[in-house]
Amino acid sequence: MTFNALVVEENEEKGVSVGVQQVTKDQLPDGNVTVAVEYSTLNYKDGLCLQPRNGLVRAYPHVPGIDFAGTVEASDDPRYRPGDKVVLTGWRVGETHWGGFSQKSRVNADWLVPLPDGLTTKQAMAVGTAGIAAMLAILALEDHGLKPGDGEVLVTGAAGGVGSIATAVLANVGYEVAAVTGRPETSDYLKSLGATRIVPREEIISVIKKPMEAATWTGCVDAVGGEMLARVIGQLKYGASVAAVGLAGGSSLPTTVIPFLLPGVNLLGIDSVIQPFDSRKRAWQRIATDLPLEKLDAMIVDAKLSEVPELGSKILDGKIKGRIVVDVN
Ligand code: NDP
């Protein structure tokens, strides 16, 4: 029995070549749960994993796809039985372990979570790693005192995956959301997700002239990093926090320690990859209750396995709006 998988192979001329191939179960990596994958998704990291010399994939041939959702087909672990619906994000699946761009996947049971009540496998993949990271960022901000009614929360890279989910959840639970985008044409989309103010990217990204500016934001979910994050740090209100999720705009952080000392702002690092089971369950639970499904559905762009390589290049260029959901079947 063979099945379809997107396989990346090393290639001397181009570095790598990518295509849909027939694969057998014997080729799947070791693991104690085999899942019939229904949907995967496309994250920024998937775009990287499709590039040569990306620093993430260790061995070829490789099946990328850092997320998947589907139905358990076989399990040697008492927590999962055939027929159970499951979701996987993180744990370096799709990087060091074959991932979700495949009709079947074999993984360690510790990496799975049961599909949360109220979500379909397709909706879970519209959330994916980007959405879980956005939710972990919101939880971290709330754990540091953020609450609705305190003032505007900034979301950077708002039209992307992390930004779209953060905007929709924050607005739905009563926060006032200011959305930073470099794409003015996404304004209506961001307002439909609940943003009340659109902030042009160039208004925030610039060389910092003063380490501290007018105290503007009561919190921030940052998917961009670089000069954007540095500038936001200097614009936070007294004691407020920014959750650093991503580096779509760069990995440098050209700031000073002054905002951390005088107004006592906090920089909260967010990792979605090595999150313990309870933390991932908490995030999925909040997604299930606080992300309006009609807004999630409006973010979805459907894709087939064969379209992933082209979309992978687009996400690295910041040209994807919302969430790509890949139907692997
Ligand atoms: P997307 O490409 O979907 O979104 C990124 C957005 O950032 C773009 O849509 C764009 O938004 C903005 N952007 C892109 N390039 C630049 C630039 N040069 N300067 C300023 N803004 C830019 O990616 P994701 O949302 O999936 O991921 C965002 C980041 O978060 C990535 O770096 C990713 O690796 C990271 N990430 C981290 C996780 C973690 O566990 N910490 C988990 C998931 C993602 P707009 O057009 O609206 O300006």
TrEMBL record:
Tell me what this protein is called.
Answer: Acrylyl-CoA reductase AcuI
Q: Which InterPro entries match?
A: Acrylyl-CoA_reductase_AcuI, ADH-like_C, ADH-like_N, ER, GroES-like_sf, NAD(P)-bd_dom_sf, Zn-ADH-like_protein
**EC identifiers of the protein:** 1.3.1.84
A GO molecular function held by the record: acryloyl-CoA reductase (NADPH) activity
Q: Which residues form a coiled coil?
A: none
- Enoyl reductase (ER) domain boundaries: 15-326
Record the organism.
Answer: Thalassoglobus neptunius
Report the top EC class in one word: oxidoreductase
The alphabetical list of record keywords is: Oxidoreductase
